[in-house]
Queue: 4 jobs
Job 1
Amino acid sequence: MSLADKITMLMARPGGENAQKDDIPWWMRYAGRGLGTVGSFIAIILGLLNCTGIIFLNVSCLIAGIWQMLAGFLVIVCEAPCCCFFIDYVQVLSDKVESRPYWNKAALYMGLALPPFFLCFFALSTWFGSGLIFATGIIYGMMALGKKASIDDMRTSAANLEAGVGQPTTAPRATLVTNEQPFSFTGPPTKS
């Protein structure tokens, strides 16, 4: 058993399936989980710092800070439910999010991270806190794209495209509508 397998076994969720669902590298999974966990803790702390904008009567920064703290909490619930074991529904929500495809998690995290940018654009705490959540979404988006093809497969595909073999049937030059009619101008309608 390799070191990576031992770490995977230690980090497995209790009651979760231990079989790998896809061919994503182990380091990318832990990068997403680790950045999501650590980044959401930092986002909560920086969101609290962002809420001090109310002292200067900046309500939009207060709302951005609250949003950032809620987004950080939701990411912690999804990525590290052991940090919130005192809340009953956390494991259910975490399992539901874990069963979704990676692109769903990417869209969720990126969507949660964007509103604070628009509400309080010039605060560094917004950029760094929500930026970590957004970066977690980017990692999950890269995981959704899947594994890159081998160099031999890419060379073969490029050679086939250069030679004209295996051209897609729906090339941009292809006719979109098979029964198209020529366009003509008939003039304005006449009164009857």
Job 2
Amino acid sequence: MAEKKDKKKRLIKRLKNKFRLVILNDTTFEEKLSFRLSPMNVFILFISGSFLLISLITILIAFTPLREFIPGYTDVSLRQNLTNMVLKVDSLENDLTVKQHYLNNLRLIIQGKLPSDTLLNDSALVPQYDQEARKISKEDSLFRDFVEKEDAFNISNEKAGKSFGLLSGTYFFTPLNGLVTGHFEPKKDHYGVDIVAPENEAIKATLKGVVIFAGWTSETGHVISLQHDNNLISTYKHNSVLMKEVGDVVKAGDAIAIIGNSGELTDGPHLHFELWYNGTALNPEEYINLK
């Protein structure tokens, strides 16, 4: 017991021993600076400096735009604002086209001519235009009937078309930025899209929701599925690492997995992404900008 106390005292004494750090002029050996240090002072200074450096880096990331480059900290409002701006620009273009058409017709009226739309609607003046318009309209109606009958047996359009009005106000977050190499082909039992991206890329939740499955299958490797509002389910397959567990609540844009090459049905690092609504597979490319 006494030996341990002696060792402890000697250790404390060594840590408190004073040393002098001297900086000399190499030519004249003139003393420029000197510091009295001890091992205890050096250790405390190192710990304090490390803590200060970590604090500064944390503040820099938390309160500057640098956090946008960290997976899971992406600002979802940025994509919503961008989508709103695109919709406004599209509306302005349509409004500009209508006004331009109105000005053209007004110019024709001032010149004493008939507007172009009047010529097509007045069969007494130019009957051949009216007959041609009737012919085109009839063929167009037959073509629309044909397309509707074909789409009635298409699993991707069976409910997606009816529900588009409900989902039109939903802003989907792009799960992964990359190259789409496999498209939605339900006839080939491919109910999603394949997106290729560099290794170690983070995969993000397309909407806020709850993790309902996070596990492994032999064919699709590490898989995670999220339950969203409006009976929507999104599924992410072939991951290398899953970052969430069943029951976790996630926000749109949160990192939930890392891109991988797991499972038998894969030939390289990519994400297989599926979107389901009321038990029906939707084409993600119709709702999400995956480019």
Job 3
Amino acid sequence: MLGPLAVPRRRTLGVGLAALLVALAVVVVVLAPERATGSYAERCDRFAADSSARAGLVTGSGEPVLVIGDSWSAGLGLADPGASWPVRLPGRVHVAGFSGSGFSARASGCGAVSFAARAPAALAGLPADALVVVEGGLNDWDRSDAEVTAGFDDLLAVLEGRRVVVVGPASAPSRAAYVARVDALLAELAAGHGVTYLSALDVELGYLDDRLHLTPAGHTAFGDWVAAHLG
């Protein structure tokens, strides 16, 4: 027979174990965005390979243009990533797109792939007068204003002295409820840095079944819209 102290001791051990599991869960949540493992790491590797492949597809002729962006620029979901929207821009267009990335450092869980982190390498070899188009914001939907602001400031520090156009997030159906906040913040930050901002909230586009990424026709429409507003 169990003594009178057995039940309280078992309860104490149970509470301790539960607390330990909660603590471990918190650690995993905190570390996951910075150290991808398992299937997520495989996805990051795929995104990196896609980014490198898209960067090798320089299109057009004329004055150099650099596009720094997310999966829309990288062409995720397209049979031909080289047909992603930047191909519609005038000039000799270079693309530095990485799926899942954004302005904030923790928009992606694939490490240092924010726009600011990737900008120095993307600028290598391009003249100082090359136009830089930055496209994104959809992946910043769940990041705080402070995180987005810090990433934006870091990016503009890298791009200081260059001609910059920032293209904000469109109302992709899966995140339409969140993008208005990001759009307003980016517009404010762009004005503060004296760079052009294009709000894409009202641009009608075609989306894939995931309600986040563009169809081929959507890429064409988005690229033509951006091209028409570059001036």
Job 4
Amino acid sequence: MHNDRVIDHVGIRVADLNASQRFYDTVLPVLGLERHDDPTYTEWGDFAIGTDGPVTKHLHIAFFAPSHDLVDAFHRAGVDAGYQDDGAPGPRPQYREDYYGGFLRDPDGNSVEAVYTGRTRETGAIDHLWLRTRDVAAIRRFYVATGHAIGVDEPDHVQIITDGASFSYVTGEPVTEHVHIALSADTNAKVDAFHAAAIEAGYEDNGAPGERAEYHPGYYGAFVLDPDGHNVEAVNHNR
């Protein structure tokens, strides 16, 4: 898997579907994301929630906003509806010079952000993820083995680069649990290669390459578990 890939989607599992639907219905439409329901999950853009497994905990996910005003509106919508403030809108120059973010907590305690930077991205697109891990080196080995591009490469922080977004694993407690990260591939062969590389390197299979027509015709994916047990997928939407 190489740097021509993008984050195709991110999925989390929630303790109370109705409660989480209310939260994300409150804040994500501010960023122009429409809700779509499926029998097993609810999605807004490239982000989905469901109840078909252990609850996702201690994740940080940020959605792109094209202006400071939209970051403010996202945060205000959540706070006005009674959700927990996790950081008022404002500049965070420690991240980058033009970084402006506002943070909330979802009903399961995950950190959810709207962020503006000088980058050009689609409104509401996933901008970045942060996951905490006990072993950054083990995570790095997994992503190198499966052909991903590494950005920040430090003993306590490894950043995986995709076209448009990034996700990072950092040392810390409590560790992030039960996240699904799907990265796009433009051929079925690249999906196969991702899975084969992971298995050859000793990582756990979580779903062999193949079409998953239950998602949609032409959905060709493969799944493996990273060292922290997160479900990492390569997917090609081939029609």
